[in-house]
Amino acid sequence: MVKSGKLRSGTGSKLKRWKKGHSSDSNPQTSRFRQAAKSRFFSRPSGKSDLTVDALKLHNDLQTGPLELSSGGRKDAFMEEEPDEAISERTSGTFLSGLSDCSNLTFRKVQRFWESNSAAHKEICAVLAAVTEVIRGQGGKETETEYFAALMTTLEVVDSAESQAAVAYLLNLVMKRVPAPVLISKFSDTTKALMDVMSKQATAETASALRWILSCLATLLRKQDASVWTYPYTLQVFHGLLSFTVHNKPKVRRAAQQGVCSILRGSDFLFTDNAPTHHPAAATTAKFCIKEMEQAGGSKEDTTTLHVLGLLKELIGTFPLAAVKSCCETLLRVMTLSHVLVTANAMQAFHKLLSGKPNASTLSPELNAQIITALYDYLPSENDLQPLLAWLAVMEKAHIHLANLQSSLSLGHLPRLFSAAMSCLLSPHAQVVSAATNTLKNLLTECIAPCLDEVGIISATASAGNPAYICKMFKIVEEGLSYRYHASWPFVLQILGCFYQVAGKKAHPIMTKSLQSLADLRSTPQFPFSGELDMAVGGAVESMGPDVVLGAVPLNITGFNDDLEFPRSWLIPVIRDHVKNTRLGFFASYFLPLATTLKQRGEELEQAGQKLEAKVYQTLQLQIWTMLPGFCTCPVDLLASFKGIARTLGMAINEQPDLRLTVCQALRTVINKSCSTEEEKVEVGRFSKNFLPILFNVYSQPPAAGESGTYRMAVLDTIKVYLAVTETPMTCTFLQKATDKLSSTDTTEFTRLAMMDLVVAMAPFVDEVTMTKTFELIRPFLETKEPGMQKKAYRVLEEMCGGEREECRSFVMANLETLKVVLLETLKNASSPAKRPRLKCLSHIVKRLGEEHKDFIVALLPEVIICTKEVSVGARKNAYNLLVDMGNAFVRFCGNTKEAMEQYLVLVYVGLTGSVTMITCTVLALTRLVFEYKDSIEVSTMEQLLHNVCLLLSSRTREIVKAALGFIKVILFIMDPKTLASHVTVMMEGVGNINDDVRRHFRTKLKNIFTKFIRKFGFELVKSMLPAEHHKVLVNIRKIEARSKRRKQATEQPDDSESEEESPKAKTESIEDILAESDSDMSEDEGKAKKKKGKPQKGRAWLREGEDDDPLNFLDSKVSQRVLATNPQLKRSNKVEHGFKVTSDGRLIIKDDEEEGGKEKDEEEMKDILEEAGVKSKKTPKRKIQNDNFDDDMDIEPHLKYKAGGSGIHRPLSGRPDTGADYKSKKGKGDVKKKGKLDPYAYIPLKKDQLNRRKRAKLQGQFKGMVKGAQKGAQSGRKMQKKKRKA
């Protein structure tokens, strides 16, 4: 070991030491880097440089000495041009100054290259610096045009390949921003220079500049006018660019292809008013592609065809019609090569063409139809997964595009595709079945649905035209119900359901037979796909209507001599869930008599003592009534049929309590969803004189003994909805009767509360005079000592003040002074339950006040602040909202938001001098106001407020400290970090001064605040500002943050260890994804063998031999289906998907909840901030409402019942649960084994305490007792068996 502070012997001479007293010098005597700079480490620019010996000497002096001038001579030497200005800290310019301070934003991408170690990057930086210096030397303004001219000159001068590449790169950047007139005027000179460089680079080994030259050419051609393309020279230049699209170097080829695409798709003249339909060079490009593919021939190793296909799939949509036709013919020819990758790329080209939705000038309906017909010759085998998925995707796009161009032609081609897609449902691949199903559903919605408006009713006798095509398609789908397709029945049912929804309205005559088949399938025992079948029939109900469906599949329920199994009863919930937009009269004519019959039959059976059968009929009757809301959803015959059913509905509400919920829901549905016209509203409102008295009576009567009162809330909601379509004079009459009954002395308390609820419902729908009378009537109730009546009186006032009708606004303005006086007088007598509606009422009034009523707002402020600590969640929420409304009122009064906030906050500050409760409520109010008006409060005001709140942290009262901590949490969220940094010390001092008892109580809240401080300002700063008792928590927070950061990084890293099993891929969105794996399947032997180094074999294909030893006929028209891209002998693994990721060594990766809940954590944090600011209410457990008062703000915190659990005095006294009771035999002694449960043995837990030697005797005694019990049971069992044998 070497002693500390000393070096090993012999090392002193090897090291360089500072002179005594100079170890702290900033610059040592050695100047290695300056020497390197002097020796021209970088290439010196050719022009005159500012780097002189005097400037370098001055730079050295400034670095080693103070920043001042020691002699006048140096000043003269350095500042000859500006003798009056003081020297700055900036050093003199260097040869790279043109790069570092280049003002043109085009080259901001280059400025990060100067630190790179790449020679090419350094060359780019040097060229840019030199060009910038030249432009500045000539007095230029560093515009794009100047850079373009300078770089073009440089390109002609430089000879080295590296410099040419650098200049070409910079040219590529700047030419995109050069004005188009410049490029048009300099077209010939620029193209000549670029073509010269391109021809030299094309034959060179290193073509580093070629890709940038190609990009420059593309930019130049893209900016030219359409007239330039008439010259042969322009097409010659374009052909030069086009020839590089099949280059063997990927970067060059990609640059050329991108350039050609940008020219044909994005030339400037294509976006003018008189733009041509196609680019002039489009036809030339198409000929080039065709020529290259034909020259490549059928060689499988030649990649030229693939390169051309890559270009073609991007450009084929821009070609004219004749060129598109030629290209499609060439694509179909190269697909006959049965080369997997070529076929895949050709399909991609077709998909790109069709999904781009070209117009008829590019793809005519006839050509589209010819493509569809030709692609049937390339239908892959149903066992060939990826090619078949691609074929289905292309055919789907082709038919949808053809339907957009010419719907009648599309319908003629659809039956053949339906037949091919239905045969795909027999495929063993689930992915193919799912894709075929989605294809058929998309075709139904995109191709068939739009043309049904032009088609009449479709019958089975249709012989030609569109109806015949639709009939043929449905028959093809209907064949899917045969047993041959039983494995795919869920998908067939989905297609049928979609067909019903799309065409059921017009084609129901041809669909009744399939409905009968579905009903027969549904009645078979243990039919496994009943859910899918119900959805399919539901689609039929939705489109055809229940009358057509029931005509094909009758319910077979009459009420007399019925099969008590009711095999068709499944239709009732299906109709209930899907019926809409149908005839309400059908319910009145078919279902109402049936429900009446079933009810009578149930009563007869109950009188006869057959209670079970009676219950079945009663249940059926109730289920029939549940269909009524569906029939009331947008009925087509509301005006004609509602009057026929209204009387029955009124009687049902009045006489049948079990139907009230359903009938009330139906009435609300009629008014809310079906009354779209004024005539319908008048028709339904005409019966308000009949319905409303019935509803009033039902609501005002107490429920019968043993009857639930849950229907009363539904009745009240129905009353409120019905009042919206009731005439105002009638509502006033009803309100007068309710108030008369309310003021009557012989009414019970229940009736009075019910009448008050009805007054609340009717108050906003009456005229201004009636509102004033109602206000005078409820005025005494505002001061009553009954909390229920007082609260409902405030609810009446709230509805009248907050109504949207003009009468409500007039009432408030006419009685404003009276309302102010009454509300201020009743402040002392306002009970806690009445606070919520009272505050809401005040909020409505404050929104309509002018500046002259400012004193009223000031008088209300203390009450509102105190209410921020109310027990009721609704009251607290309304108090916070009212504080904001008052702030908005001050803004209205002042006009200037900041002055208004200054005045408003001064009034709120007064609460900080009050009692403990007042201080707490004031801090809560200030928290909400700061959060709401964070952008409108002056910085000085915010700072003063923050200082005052931090002083409150030293209080001994927990409530005050809790409110102050909430304020700090909100401040941390809303305040700018720079502004917050100047107040960290004050906040830390305040947190450090918290009382020990209070600190322990709020340790979780404090930990949350410390975490936010550490994230904003760092661990060390926060630790240095807090006392020692907080340090342990801070260290713990740092560990938690570091752990969560590591976990987050681990989850973001790509998972290299994937399961080796071949799982089916999810449905892809593009054909590129579908075809991405067409060549990725490996044979079973290759999968087992070790992977060899080298390039993987591409384009592998398998040939499927003939069946039953038949020789393969290569002249067969369907021989292409025998060439497979997927290994037919590949055995798929049947491993169970467990849902967890696996590491490379086979271990499961199971994430913690905190890892999975990253977003949830952020949402919880945001929710916490909103709760502290009073924007969201903090949820408290609500007690169950045991009476019939339906007020929705019973938010009093409940008294939780204690539940025993644990040991000692907390042990449960009810005795130990008998765990073996489930296994006890009902017939005799002993236990029995039960399926799916553990065996009935005494399971002994394995604990490490049982290894204790001192307790061994005790444990052995327990086991002996168990053994003895088992022996007794066995002996008794043997005796019983002996007795049975003797008997």
Automatic annotation (TrEMBL):
Residues 1071-1084 have a biased composition (Acidic residues). Pfam families: HEAT_RRP12_N, RRP12_HEAT. Residues 110-355 form the RRP12 N-terminal HEAT domain. Residues 1089-1098 have a biased composition (Basic residues). GO terms for cellular component: nucleus. Residues 1-48, 1043-1120, 1171-1238, 1261-1287 are annotated as: Disordered. Keywords: Nucleus. It is found in: Nucleus. Residues 427-701 form the RRP12 HEAT domain. Its main location: nucleus. The keyword Nucleus applies. Residues 24-33 have a biased composition (Polar residues). It comes from the Eukaryota. Residues 1219-1233 have a biased composition (Basic and acidic residues). The keyword Nucleus applies. This is RRP12. The lineage of its organism: Eukaryota, Metazoa, Chordata, Craniata, Vertebrata.
